[in-house]
Amino acid sequence: MNHLKAIPRHAAGPILVGTSGYSYAEWADAGFYPPGTKAGEMLPLYARQFGITELNFTWYQLPKAPAVERMRRLAPPGFRFAAKLTRTLTHEVDPGQWRGQATQYREGIGPLLQAQQLAALLLQFPPGFTRDAASRRYLAELLDALGGLPLAVEFRHASWAADRVFAELERRRVTLVTVDAPELPGLFPRLDVVTNPSLFYVRFHGRNARGWRSGNMQKQFDYDYTDEELRAWADGPLSRMAGRAAGGVIFFNNHVRAQAPRNAAQLARLLAGAAS
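The structure assignment produced for this chain is given below.
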């Protein structure tokens, strides 16, 4: 499959590296935050080291504009956010409710849009979301309902790794999320496909094959990337993707023992060295 044949080349643009979420009490225990740091104090401290974060709370509940605005003001000007779409639009879909929820989500995330601080809206689908007729139809309708937003889609089932899928995302200028996860049967593979010339999006989940299907997030995302693993990404897939998009965002989701901010900083240094 020639996944990249239709993507125009661009000069390498800015790449922002951060973590999936920032409000973890265990990160104070691990030394990333000072001991005793409260949840409301974490974003300003996080923003001293990273220029972007991926919001997790928007997956658990529909965002409300006043709360999003208060959070936004805790970060410095120019700080960027990616936001997960709420689980009732990706994992627990009610056929009679989802359109209204999509409208509510758009309104709730409005402060980030108005401030031009929303880098992407992440549509993360579960492994059970397979490429059948019903799922294809729902995805198309959801993308239509969220039209005009900077959309990025993460698949977790291998059935979506198909040129027809990539071509449709490219037509819609929707970003295909690249994932680093264990190489297990049925999981979406590691690819460096770029479907949106404006943005590529990468999520590092870790390679804990034993814990991946445990049902326990503390085991699933407990992984520490080596320098060699990160360098292979920097010199290989990330270099290629940067040449095919105007910019990119990269997030580490291996948050259990604060590996995520450590690995994000490691990769940022590698990318800075490659650009110098």
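Interim note for the steering committee: Residues 30 and 257 are 6 Å apart (CA to CA). The longest helix spans residues 259-275.
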